[in-house]
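hiii, so i know i said id send this last week but things got crazy w the move. better late than never?? heres the sequnce for the chain we talked about at the cafe, plus the structure i predicted for it. fair warning i was half asleep when i ran it
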Amino acid sequence: MSGMDARDTDLKKDLDATLRARRDLGDDYDSALVESFLEKLDQRMDATVDRRVRRQLAEQQMVVARDARSPKPTDTWGERFGFGIVSLVLAVPLSGIGGGVAGLPGLLVAWAGIVGVNAVQAARTHPGLFGRHRAARRDGDAWED
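okay and structure toks below
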């Protein structure tokens, strides 16, 4: 028998007992018997509401705790897009300066710097992107694959 059925059975027993007492005691005790039954009903409803509220609070606390432990993205799509645009805009003069001053080696160094800055940004926003990464764990002392 489930918990709800057991409570329904108990409530039916209380109602039956109240009705038998009314028959035995007569009409003089109607209001007292009804008040007594309604008090029991109120207590059961309060207990049910309290259980539901506690359950919902516990579920909300679990959701909040899970969200607090899950890693959040450090920036938004707009910030990533802006970083890419700035990177490309700066790539043009850096390529010109590097290529003009040192030729092909200067151009390669300028682009290595641009790629390096973008790789660092990508690794910061997506920790698992390049294979090995430092785990965001509480003990924080181990490298993970």
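btw The CA atoms of residues 56 and 62 lie 10 Å apart. thought thatd interest u
miss u guys!!
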